[in-house]
Design a protein that fits this description.
Length: about 325
Amino acid sequence: MPRVVVFDEFGGPDVLHLVEKPVVEPAAGEVRVRIEAFAVNPLDQMMRSGALPVTIPAPHARLGVEGTGVVDALGPEVAGLEIGDPVILTAIPDATVRGSYAEYTTLPANRVIPRPTGLGSTEAAAIWVAYSTAYGALVEKARMQPGDHVLVTAASGSVGRAAMQIANQIGAAPIAITRHTAKQDDLLAAGATAVVATDQADVVEAVRHHTDGAGADIVLDLVMGPGQPDLLRAARPGGTLVAAGFLDPRPTPFPAGTPLTIFSYRSFEHTVDPVVVRRMAAFLDAGVRLGALRPAIDTVFPLDNIAEAHHHLEKGLHAGRKIVVTPWFDR
Ligand SMILES: NC(=O)c1ccc[n+]([C@@H]2O[C@H](COP(=O)([O-])OP(=O)(O)OC[C@H]3O[C@@H](n4cnc5c(N)ncnc54)[C@H](OP(=O)(O)O)[C@@H]3O)[C@@H](O)[C@H]2O)c1
């Protein structure tokens, strides 16, 4: 019988275990996907540990917001998909039935998109969360244009790397922020036009230098916390800051009197909008075809080692590269 990753209580990685469950027949408007690979995300870790204020249905709560596979069964009233089609899951967090941590999952047909042409299953498993977040924040919210200077915080992370590739695809200039000068070469190789390392440089001065005194047009703030006021000062008046992450747990000062437009962004607001999802799918497909978009992979684990995959995530040594699990690796 197919295997599914479940947890029955909040806790560390070892609460995750495998159970066998019969496949779920798709209802009207649903598809079943045979999962080839899924990625492990910090959001999964937060759901597993109880850090998110969600109620989990015990026993057998499920996890997983992204993955890839092929359509295995179609429910009634599903148009535009055929059995065998390679797809990407764009699921929202749901601890009951929709998680991608499994050999099969059944979900609404509007939560899958075609797998970008030319992307293998390991990379396809890892593209949705990081790239849809970066695309949604920069293109849909901030309306990024060619020539814009885009300040990318946590640039060495998975969303930051995706943001730099997307900025380059559009013709904008991504300026990467890192806390460590040692990461400068890696970030330039990852697409940054300039790097600001906060262990040596002052953010405001350095950004002014890299933008001929003008300031950044757009700031993607994945960190928040007490560093945000400097980001606001590093942007030009009339620019845009999109707050999409919260890596720094310290409070963020209220941005009183700022001449910037500030958005708070959660990608799930777009994942449930089929019109935006279609635009995202087209953008990702074009970017992969042109070679502009390519997720970086850290380690691939077999399904049996799911707890080890979460331990690996918690060590934080993957440096913005994705951790992927392949359910059929050992079958
Ligand atoms: N809005 C959404 O829908 C959405 C979707 C996905 C993720 N997110 C959020 O976006 C953020 C980034 O996600 P990710 O997957 O890219 O993370 P990640 O891959 O774990 O990013 C790690 C990088 O962030 C930097 N960093 C870590 N802690 C930091 C701190 N306290 N202060 C400053 N920099 C720090 C580090 O870069 P350096 O060592 O180089 O400084 C590190 O390499 C997270 O908060 C995540 O929850 C939001």
